[in-house]
Amino acid sequence: MIARRTIAAILTSLMVGGISGPAAAHHDPPEDQYVPDQLVIKLDPMSGASIDDVNATWGTATLETLLGSTGIHLVATPQGTDLEDLAESMESDLRVLYAEINYHTYAPEFFSHTISAWSHTISAWGDLLTPLPADDPSAYTDQYALDLLGVEEANELSGGVGTVVAVLDTGVQLDHPALAGSLTSASYDFIDDDPVPGDDPNGLDDDGDGIVDEAVGHGTHVAGVVHLVAPAAQIMPLRVLDSDGIGDLFVIAEALQFAVTNGADVINLSLGLIQESEFLEDVIEDAVEAGVVVVAAAGNLDDIQPVYPAADDEVLAVAAIGPTDQRAPFSSYGMWVDLVAPGMSVYSAYPTDRWAWWGGTSTAAPFVAAQAALLRSLDPDLDPKAVAFLMRSTAVSVDHANPSYIGLLGAGRPDLVASLEAAGYEEEAED
Hints:
Strand order of the largest sheet: 7-8-6-10-11-12-13
Oligomer: single chain
CATH topology of the largest domain: Rossmann fold
Mean pLDDT: 88
Number of strands: 15
CATH architecture of the largest domain: 3-Layer(aba) Sandwich
Helix content: 25-40%
Structural class: alpha/beta
Number of helices: 11
Low-confidence stretches: 1-29, 112-128
């Protein structure tokens, strides 16, 4: 795993070098890629310093503190401060383990910003990834993805009973007829800071791209995919993206902690960013150490560029394929990818009380999150590493359908039945 991702980093650096030259100049991130005037800092517990001590030195002010004894705080910086310079200076302070910009996170299907650190524009291939609403519930249980993954046969072995899958997204239509009976009472809206994480429009163009409420339905659709594959699992809806599909690192971290504290077995993150975050990786590592399987969308960049948190070592990164096992034309790829799953023309729940065809690595990730729920239901003692091993070791290679991407699409397509049978054999052997 580590070696594979180290190679991926080398390949990425070579690609960037090929575009920008071997000594590419440093570029500050575009202003719309982060929350203005905010940093996330982690104190070194060995220093004995308080956040008030650090604030007094740097002119910052505490906005929020992550729960528990993490020593992680969101602070406001003096207005107009160069955040990268301040973060770098604060990291030289022996009381501070790290200081990071509070970057925005995005649903992959709505990440259409120009990234200044590269000489090309990364787009969301929006023409391929726009939801197509429909009103036929029968198509939900009659689609290629089910046959491709062997869902019906797998559900004879496990339906996910006793497991909880946290969906960190735009929220969920809480009374959708397909989902209402499967949602946990533990839920939260981290965008509006209230206990009702509905997947609702606000009538505003929050990201200034000329489209209003473009991401509404994203979380409902993702939750519908989880329910399709693991119908007996419970879904924990946590709203961390607004109706335009935008959140931030600190909000994601708060929701991750909430999911772990409230009994999630699996966390699905159909979201990401291109900036690597020590802070987010820190919080995810805590979740995995607590026994939670974390799955994330690999991104829709049609590029080898790593997307985070998918590319973090503790996370299962999921790229997208179509019905013939070919890589979806928008899907990210690379040696940092773990698995692929259906991400083209997937039919799932959509507000209000409707259904929709949709695509993207956002729809691929919940297939794998649901597989994790099936495995944990069959054997609750499986830890995240064991779940990942069972998934990868039983996956079906898609190299034959992707000769130009051999080794860049992970272990391949999940074989749900094979993974469950392998888990069952392992459990019998232990007995």
